[in-house]
Specification:
Blueprint: H1 5-12, E1 15-18, E2 27-29, E3 39-42, H2 55-60, E4 65-69, H3 73-79, E5 87-91, H4 94-109, E6 112-117, H5 122-133, E7 139-141, H6 151-156, E8 165-169, H7 177-185, E9 189-192, H8 206-213, E10 225-229, H9 233-238, E11 245-250, E12 257-264, E13 270-276, E14 279-285, H10 289-305, H11 310-317, E15 328-331, E16 337-341, H12 347-359, E17 366-371, H13 380-393, E18 398-402, H14 405-416, E19 424-427, H15 430-440, E20 446-450, H16 458-467
Parallel strand pairs: 2-3, 3-4, 4-5, 6-8, 6-9, 7-8, 9-10, 10-11, 11-12, 16-20, 17-18, 17-20, 18-19
Antiparallel strand pairs: 1-5, 12-13, 13-14, 15-16
């Protein structure tokens, strides 16, 4: 789909300071280090950097020009050294400008957009929904977790290739952020997976988190669809305000897409009879735990909205693989079975992971390396206490807690919950935790590694992979 400086000006309400309005823009970039020839550089102003400082570097790498803030236009024209071929567009705010450009591309592409939010499971639900939809459509999914006020617009810019359906994530850690993202993505289908305690340190309560997530309901058209978790009381209480249609999914309660006769098969995943408006089908998935089964149900509801047959959904569910560092089951050549869930952590997600450990069978010992959970604020001590008790209840034979004082609280409450003191270790860094794990893990063990990204528990994963290669 063509994109020109004239389109940029129209989308942003900006001004073409110099250059031709009709030139073809090869792409949009905010990184002067990786920008390609013929791409337009958007000078984003961040908390720790100012993209205007890198306009010259972008142009030296072959950038077509730059989108800059109005007050910087004169200085950028001077940087262009009189080259009238370079495009310079000025806007009031470059972050808002990037969002406006992305919204314009999204509208002109004609792509149907599915947007997913929730405290946990966003990426997995996105990947599963995209996999199901690919049975019938050309599907785009945003890479990794490009789901914030900058990452989402960058993802939507890729809709210039005009896929039929796009599946994207909406992330947040403050009120108002989901509202902004919904305004940029304008999704026809919105998915709300759950309300948990991730980022609770930025909010007064889980209800406040739910209110912030509920921004996904805003500005809906009557034709839009909300896919909502019927098992989550906070979601159920808020869906009444949605102006469009609602489809529910769930395991514990009656729902439009409901799993019954659920069998948790531990490390083999789960299977269930799934009842839907299109009929019943038995679905089996290798993804671990009830949380992932719920993610599959949400994705099933999305796929049914687009007319994907149930048998195609079931066939693809049986072949699903987790995203990198998100519940990957690794059977290492040296005889250790590793659950790599090191990408991130929150109390509710950790409890689900520990439930997987609890029901798992066939290992010599069960071991967990658990990183401190960040962004919990005043709730940190209580939530780490509860997770320490959950670790003890999971029947672990060995626990290594890693991080700051909250991780020590988790370790102490695992002992209070019944784990012997000799089986519980505390490390301040993931490097120390990796040393402890290498010293104590043996062939035949099942090892869970999970922690907040800031703790870096992926270091433990890589050490164990190298040791038992």
């Amino acid at each position: 789909m063509p994109l020109t400086p004239g389109d940029i000006v129209a989308a942003t309400g900006g001004r073409l300071e110099q250059g031709s309005a009709e030139q073809d823009i090869g792409g949009i970039s905010i990184d002067s280090r990786t920008i390609g020839s013929g791409e337009l550089f958007v000078a984003i102003r961040g908390d720790r950097f100012d993209g205007h400082d890198f306009v010259e570097a972008a142009m030296s790498r072959g950038a077509l020009g730059a989108v800059v803030e109005s007050g910087q236009a004169a200085a950028v024209r001077a940087t262009a050294q009189g080259s009238r071929d370079l495009v310079i567009v000025s806007v009031g705010d470059t972050t808002r400008g990037l969002q406006d450009i992305a919204r314009d591309v999204r509208r002109r592409a004609g792509t149907k957009v599915v947007a997913i939010t929730g405290s946990a499971g966003k990426t997995t639900t996105k990947e599963v929904a995209a996999e199901f939809l690919a049975a019938r459509f050309r599907v785009f999914r945003n890479r990794g977790n490009l789901n914030n006020h900058i990452g989402l617009p960058l993802s939507l810019l890729e809709l210039r290739s005009r896929p039929e359906v796009a599946v994207v994530e909406l992330g947040m850690n403050h009120a108002g952020e989901i509202r902004t993202l919904v305004g940029v993505a304008e999704p026809e289908v919105r998915v709300w997976t759950n309300v948990g305690d991730a980022h609770v340190g930025f909010f007064a309560s889980s209800d406040a988190i739910a209110d912030a997530k509920a921004e996904v309901l805003e500005h809906a058209r009557s034709t839009d669809l909300l896919v909502a978790n019927a098992d989550d009381d906070r979601i159920v209480a808020r869906t009444k305000r949605f102006a469009g249609r609602v489809t529910t999914f769930g395991i514990q309660r009656v729902a439009d897409v409901q799993a019954t006769a659920v069998e948790d098969r531990g490390l083999k995943g789960s299977h269930a009879l799934v009842r839907t408006p299109a009929g019943e089908i038995r679905i089996e998935t290798p993804l671990l735990g009830s949380g992932n089964l719920a993610n599959v149900l949400a994705a099933t509801a999305v796929a049914l909205e687009f007319g994907v047959p149930l048998d195609a959904i079931a066939a693809r569910a049986a072949r699903l693989q987790p995203a990198h560092h998100r519940g990957e089951l690794l059977r290492l050549p040296g005889g250790v079975t590793l659950i790599d869930d090191s990408y991130n952590s929150s109390p509710s997600a950790l409890r689900r992971a520990l439930q997987v450990m609890k029901v798992a069978t066939g290992s010599a010992r069960k071991i967990a390396v658990l990183g401190e959970m960040l962004e919990l604020g005043a709730h940190a001590a209580r939530l780490h206490q509860e997770c320490g008790a959950a670790a003890a209840d999971a029947g672990l034979d060995l626990l290594i807690a890693v991080g700051g004082p909250s991780a020590k609280v988790l370790a102490d409450h695992a002992c209070a919950g019944g784990m012997p003191g000799r089986a519980v270790f505390y490390a301040t860094t993931s490097a120390e935790a990796a040393d402890l794990a290498v010293q104590r893990v043996r062939p035949g063990d099942l090892v869970l590694v999970k922690g907040s990204r800031g703790i870096g528990t992926d270091v433990v994963v890589e050490r164990l992979k190298a040791e038992y290669a």
